[in-house]
Amino acid sequence: MLTAFRSLEHRNFRLYYAGQSVSLIGTWMQRLAVGWLVYSATHSSVLLGVVMFAGQIPTLLLAPYGGTVADRYSRYRILVFTQVASFIQASLLAGLVLGGYYNTWAVASLSLLLGTINAFDIPARQSLLVELVDNPAYLPNAIALNSTMVNVARLLGPAIAGLLLTYLGAGTCFALNALSFGAVIASLLLMRLVPRPPRAHRPGTWEGLREGWAYLRQAPGLRRQILLMAGIACCVMPYGTLLPVFAREVFHGAAGTFGWLNSMSGLGALAGALYLASRPAGSHQSRHVSYAALAFCLGLLGFALSARLPVALVFSVLSGTGMMLFIAGTNTFVQTHVDDRMRGRVLSYYVMAFQGVQPLGSLLVGWLARQLGAPHTVLLQATAGLLVVLMFWQSKKALAPAPAA
After folding, report:
1. In CATH, what is the architecture of 2-191+208-398?
2. Residues in the chain with pLDDT < 70?
3. What is the reported pTM?
């Protein structure tokens, strides 16, 4: 287990890890509170899908541009700027809700603003990881530890938010999230980074996008992994949009039940991230990523068929483990197989596949839940995910070299 935390030997990564650990708890509190606030006010799975769509669609449209910006300019400065902007967004949301001046469309608009910020934040953040560790051999461990940090927050944030929603309301969650950005901003300001050597040629926006696409066309391994991510992200990952519906309508609970559903999924994801962090460098292979996607879909299949909350929580843990092994494994595969000069642009396509296509799935999932009900919709999602994995395996076999005669 000591080797699982070896990347923390590097001062800059240690600062990043500490600051983000605090900030991400607030981020997960806000994410949970937005979903509960909208569904409690409207009782509409369609409007819930619309708000989730607003928060994620900018990533689909702007992430490639954000990746080009990350390759042209200082990733560190971009990250400082986006964290300050996220603090302002959280403060506005807290002020509107605490003051009683909000409505669903105001929440959707601020979600759209946050999604726009994230379209620049995520490519810069992912690209910066390689600069936070002095030895590139530590990069896979840093990525896995980053996933661990996200999932500790995913475990704690919803649990805290469930209590706050029950006793103090959503506005308190948003206010605490705004305060949590102080930790990550302070950690960034304390870092001492060696400036990247200036590039002889810094491509323009459209030239950079074309270069990134051309690079992916010549890297079939990277391209297939990103396409698998896009398929799972579109078909399966938007199931989280319906968790408020499961909490209230299926399991007849309240905000605490919603928090438990999120936290148990986060517990499984944390276990998966710790497992990845403890593995030796170079042990992440593409076939393990597809097996993780399979486990994610099978866990979600069990969740959709569960009529009792304790059984559903067990399957939430299993699906969360598979989901995190899939996400972190894909990220590690991409980061360790990409040329550093193309890192921001290729990661922007990864981010677009991971988070950019989810809003399309959220809209569809919200509409399907209205027509079929939440359990049948998630059952359909899990089945679609299994078909995506099967198609990935078939494409991999088709591209495999024929055995020598």
Report:
1. Up-down Bundle (1.20)
2. 1-4, 195-209, 273, 276-287, 396-405
3. 0.71
DSSP string, 384-399: HHHHHHHHHHHHHHHH
3-state helix, strand, coil in the chain (%, to 5): 85, 0, 15
Dihedral angle computed from the Cα positions of residues 67, 73, 74 and 80, in that order, rounded to the nearest 10 degrees: -70
Please give the angle made by the CA atoms of 212, 80 and 32, to the nearest 5 degrees.
Answer: 90
- 353 vs 138, 230, 256, 286, 404, CA distance in Å? 25, 4, 32, 17, 36
Locate the domains of the chain by residue range: 2-191+208-398
pLDDT, one tens digit per residue, over 202-221 is 555 566 667 777 887 787 77
Q: What is the pLDDT of residue 269?
A: 74
pLDDT tens digits for 64-98? 778 778 777 788 899 999 999 999 999 999 998 88
User: What is the chain's alpha carbon radius of gyration, rounded to the nearest angstrom?
Assistant: 20
Long-range contacts of 113-118 (CB under 8 A, 24+ apart): 113/89, 114/55, 114/86, 114/89, 115/54, 115/55, 115/56, 115/57, 115/58, 115/59, 116/58, 116/62, 117/82, 117/85, 117/86, 117/89, 118/58, 118/59, 118/82, 118/355
